[in-house]
Amino acid sequence: MNDETNDPQTVGSPATEAGPLDPPDAGTPAEAIKRERDDLFDRLLRKTAEFDNFRKRVDRDRKDMIEWAAAEVLNDVLAIADDFDRALAADAPPEAQQYKAGLELIQRQLADLLKKRGVTVLEALGADFDPHFHQAVAYEEVAGARDGEVVAVLAKGYKLGDRLLRPAIVKVAKAS
Questions:
Q1: For the chain, what percentages of helix, strand and coil (3-state, to nearest 5) are there?
Q2: What string of pLDDT tens digits covers the 176 residues of the chain?
Q3: Selection from 44, 56, 160, 156 nearest residue 170 by Cα
Q4: Distance between CA atoms of residues 40 and 56, nearest Å
Q5: Is residue 10 in a domain?
Q6: Rounded-to-integer distance, Cα 44 and Cα 107, Å
Q7: Are both 26 and 109 inside the same structural domain?
Q8: Residue 107: which residues within 8 A CB-CB, separation 6 or more?
């Protein structure tokens, strides 16, 4: 009865039968269970981190989509603001001054609405030309102006937070 296959020390030992929980160097069953527990805990932490990253990415994408939609609407509103600017810049006869005052009131309300929504006007006049914020449509020699200085703003530029809604359309000084 000294058969090796029936020897209680060799049957089911890690060296002869390695089960899913018992790798060849598993040691005691308690150690194998602890390793499996640690492995499952590590996997849980990784899945939790992956889910947290997924949630943050979805929140960021949702915020970007809302900003994009708001920017589209605000660009349409900016065209109306430009029309008010042009209307108020025109000379009005004395009998139209009440209408002009009404237009000024509406323009202020529109400017307040844009400000409330986080839209800011780019200050371009006197600044150095920056192609990221300005669109040059003309260059001209201007006495007393630096080369590349914005000397006239033909249409205001706007930003929504850090995002450029529309560049300022400007006239730039050139060297003589």
A1: 50, 20, 35
A2: 444 444 444 444 444 444 455 455 557 899 999 999 999 999 999 999 999 999 999 999 999 898 888 888 999 999 999 998 888 888 888 898 898 999 999 999 999 999 998 899 999 998 999 999 999 999 988 888 888 999 999 999 999 888 899 999 999 998 77
A3: 156
A4: 24
A5: no
A6: 57
A7: yes
A8: 81, 84, 85, 88
Based on the domain organization, do 125 and 101 belong to the same domain? no
Residue 165 lies in a domain: yes
Cα–Cα dist 140/13, whole Å: 92
Is residue 162 one of the residues assigned to a domain?
yes
Q: Distances from the Cα of 168 to the Cαs of 103, 105, 142, in angstroms? A: 23, 24, 19
Cut 0.70: pTM above it: no
User: Which domain range does residue 82 map to?
Assistant: 17-117
- Could you tell me the two tokens for 62? 């949702």
For residues 103 and 173, membership in a common domain is answered with no
> In CATH, what number is assigned to the domain containing residue 157?
2.30.22.10
Question: Looking at the structure, do residues 106 and 134 belong to the same domain, yes or no?
Answer: no
Place of tokens 């006495």: 143
**Residues 24 and 94 reside in one and the same domain:** yes
